[in-house]
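Troubleshooting log. The previous structure file for this entry was overwritten by mistake, so regenerating from the original sequence record. Sequence copied from the archived sheet and checked twice against the printout by T.R.
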Amino acid sequence: MPAAIKVMSAGAVQSMVEALGREFERASGTTLNLIFNTAGSLRERIAGGESADLVILSESLIASLDKSGMFVPGSIINLGRTVTGVAVREGAPVPDISTPEAFKQALLKAKTVAYTDPKAGGSGGIMFAAMLQRLGIAEAVNKKAVLGQRGAEVARSIAEGRAEIGTTFISEVLPVKGVKVIGPLPGELHTANTYTAAIPAGSASHAAATALLRALTDPATRARWTAAGLEPAF
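Regenerated output below.
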C-alpha cells in the first residue's frame, strides 16, 4: 500500500472517520491525510479539480458529482445517516421543543441562536436557513444568530456560552464537551442527511482507498457509528 492517501470528508462523519482512520493507519501502515470541511466547500474544491483518494460528502452531492463519471464504478457506498438536533449548554434550562410551534417560540425567546453559516456550504445550515424562512422567523432569528463555519463550531459556541440554543447534526454535537443534545427537530421540521463515500476515478491509490472504505463499513463497527450519532447505512 502507498505511504499516504488523501481523504476529503464532510464534518458530519468526522468523529468516526478519525477514529476508524487511526485504527486503519496502525493496521495497514498507511498514513491518512484527512481533510474535513463542509460538504459544499469540498464539493467546490473537487469540482474544481482537486484530487483525492476517497471523498465523503452528502449522498446528493456525490450523486451530482458522479453525473460526469467522476467516481470508480461500484465504489459509491452510503456510510451513515444523521439527524439535525437541538442543543443547549450542559446544565442550562431545557426549552420546550416538543412541537414545531414550541420550537419556533424557543428560537424567538432565545437571546442567541447558533447554526452553520449557509454560505460556508454546510448541509445543516442550508436546511436550517430554509426552515427559518418557512416558519416566517428568519429575520428575527438572524438578528441574533451566532454562525459557525462548521457544525463543530456551532457546538463549541453553545458550550462556551456564546449561544443559548443551536442546531446542527447530532453527530457533530456529541464529540464536544459542555453541550447537550435535547432532541431532534420536532414533527415535520425533522431533517436528516445521509453521507456517502466514493473513490475518485483519478485516484492513484485505488487499492488503499478500497481497503479504507472496507474498514469504515465493517459490520463490526455499526454500534460505534450509532453511538456517534450516525445510523449506519451498511
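The beta strands are 4-10, 31-37, 54-58, 77-89, 113-116, 145-148, 165-169, 179-184, 192-198, 231-232. Archived copy saved in two places this time.
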